[in-house]
Amino acid sequence: MPRGRYSLHDPHDHTPLADEHFQCAPGPSGWRYVSQLTAPDGDHTGSVDLTLDALGRPLRLELHAASWQVRGAALDGVTWVRTDPTGTHATEGNVRAHAFTGSSPAFLVATARLLRLTPSAAATRVRLVAFTGPVLAPRTVDQSWALVDREAHATDNGPLTVDAYQVTALDTGEQHTVHLAGDVVLSAPGVELEDLESPPSDLG
Fold first, then answer.
1. Superkingdom, according to UniProt (predicted)?
2. Which of 5, 56, 83, 125 has the greatest CB tally within 10 Å of its CB?
């Protein structure tokens, strides 16, 4: 069960945004990730709770940020309910999309798990609903994912397979690379793995 800490920063000017203290593990249903976010001054700013099924689809998503809350799942595409800080207004949404995304590294692992790409496969298009701070407003995004490299690295715990994905935003053409080892993000724009207490889980 990997447990550790990511630091999140603005990918353009590298302004520190938050630390994400996480733990994740495969389970009977698929995979679960939970985390707590803290601001650079140490204040609690939100949380992530994501459960995937065996095919990588979101069984349950719960996000908190600045007193806003989102609960979602894969249902007729993806469906969610977003609640305001007062708890008096809730809006429901539904989009013919494959999954959710956002600023948490959990969503990079989840998308890779959903697509199950191989190094020889062509790039795959995926439609996602993004929730980002500070108010978790939904936005539909189209991306292209390709697994461009897979390398095995020797470690004290045996070989560690690192996958490099090229991710393209289809609305702007902007490209970036995401490095994953099992269910842990090693590097991605705006994400740094600062601490890891146990090896990544092999999601197969």
1. Bacteria
2. 56
Contacts of 3 (CB under 8 A, 6+ apart): 22, 23, 196, 197, 198
Burial class (CB in 10 A: 0-12, 13-18, 19+), 76: exposed
58 cis-preceded (ω within 30 degrees of 0) = no
Burial 171-184 (b: 16+ CB within 10 A, else e): eeeeeeebbbbbbb
Amino acid letter, 123: A
Give residue-wise pLDDT tens across range 107-148: 999 999 999 999 988 999 999 999 988 899 999 999 999 999
Output the pLDDT for position 66. Answer: 87
Predicted confidence at residue 88, as pLDDT, reads 87
Its pTM stands at: 0.95
Q: Is 62 helix (H, G, I), strand (E, B) or coil?
A: strand
